[in-house]
């Protein structure tokens, strides 16, 4: 199934470029949290760093989708990766000059994520163009395997780098972006010219949301994703690290190992899934979220080191099922000329959910224990998914009559 993709150099270099770039993103994300905690020793400041990573998507996420639909995507991807290189290196340089501050970390993180507002929807929008319909499930799986698989490489690299200091993460980050630029230079693309203007940006956004109002399946997908991500974000990005800080003095190393276990589970799930499921639907998406919520509930309730590993494995099974299904449905239900806006709108809602989650749970953690918040979040995901699965099953016949592309079968 995957060998034909690997023989196609256009697809191969495109996927490798995006995967390597995401390796840089993963290392950067961990490094910002590690350095924020090392510099301040504050859970509030660490949560603040995580919030800053979401704000750009609320400000520029939708505009990034329009640019992905308008501009030649290959040059855009290359330029965005090139700009990221000096940004991450500036942190390394300032640290060695003993000038690095928490505020500088916030500023650089903001700009890195702003560039991601344009990179991510552009990268997602290219894949349906350079693949055939028959290749798409395997291509999505391979793409997600590379993206999620960096969570195996990043902990291995991070454990090595932590022996020297978290600051060296940013040197490796710069190298991954440079390699990504080389890979992205190798693939070719074609895009039809479109009429562009500043006013047209907002008209294009309005046009997409007007179209979305007529697409009940897309609306359902967006709303469900928003709710599930809201209950997961703080737990995954901050809660686990804080829980490990309560349990051990080697929290950063164990956090990296947990990320590696998660990445390995995701890779296996991604590679196996296309052999069993050829056509994905909303019920499969909800089932993945159900398993995802079960994993969060498991390590929240038992709250011991060994159970964190088991819970992470369950999350590593459920999350990629939901993620791959969401991407598949967007590609199936959204016209090609709207794909960039579809993925950026999805990202906008995700990061809005992320921001609200980090803000609310960042306050709640000052009042309630981390374990209570984990349990509440996990059970909320699980029970909401179970309820939606029951509703979708009951209403399946009704939705089948209303959609030419049935999202349930």
UniProtKB/TrEMBL annotation:
<feature type="transmembrane region" description="Helical">
    <location>
        <begin position="256"/>
        <end position="277"/>
    </location>
</feature>
<feature type="transmembrane region" description="Helical">
    <location>
        <begin position="374"/>
        <end position="394"/>
    </location>
</feature>
<feature type="transmembrane region" description="Helical">
    <location>
        <begin position="75"/>
        <end position="94"/>
    </location>
</feature>
<dbReference type="GO" id="GO:0005886">
    <property type="term" value="C:plasma membrane"/>
</dbReference>
<keyword id="KW-1133">Transmembrane helix</keyword>
<feature type="transmembrane region" description="Helical">
    <location>
        <begin position="349"/>
        <end position="368"/>
    </location>
</feature>
<dbReference type="InterPro" id="IPR036259">
    <property type="entry name" value="MFS_trans_sf"/>
</dbReference>
<keyword id="KW-0813">Transport</keyword>
<feature type="transmembrane region" description="Helical">
    <location>
        <begin position="145"/>
        <end position="162"/>
    </location>
</feature>
<feature type="transmembrane region" description="Helical">
    <location>
        <begin position="12"/>
        <end position="37"/>
    </location>
</feature>
<protein>
    <submittedName>
        <fullName>MFS-type transporter involved in bile tolerance, Atg22 family</fullName>
    </submittedName>
</protein>
<feature type="transmembrane region" description="Helical">
    <location>
        <begin position="308"/>
        <end position="329"/>
    </location>
</feature>
<feature type="transmembrane region" description="Helical">
    <location>
        <begin position="284"/>
        <end position="302"/>
    </location>
</feature>
<keyword id="KW-0472">Membrane</keyword>
<feature type="transmembrane region" description="Helical">
    <location>
        <begin position="49"/>
        <end position="68"/>
    </location>
</feature>
<keyword id="KW-1003">Cell membrane</keyword>
<keyword id="KW-0812">Transmembrane</keyword>
<dbReference type="Pfam" id="PF05977">
    <property type="entry name" value="MFS_3"/>
</dbReference>
<dbReference type="InterPro" id="IPR010290">
    <property type="entry name" value="TM_effector"/>
</dbReference>
<feature type="transmembrane region" description="Helical">
    <location>
        <begin position="221"/>
        <end position="244"/>
    </location>
</feature>
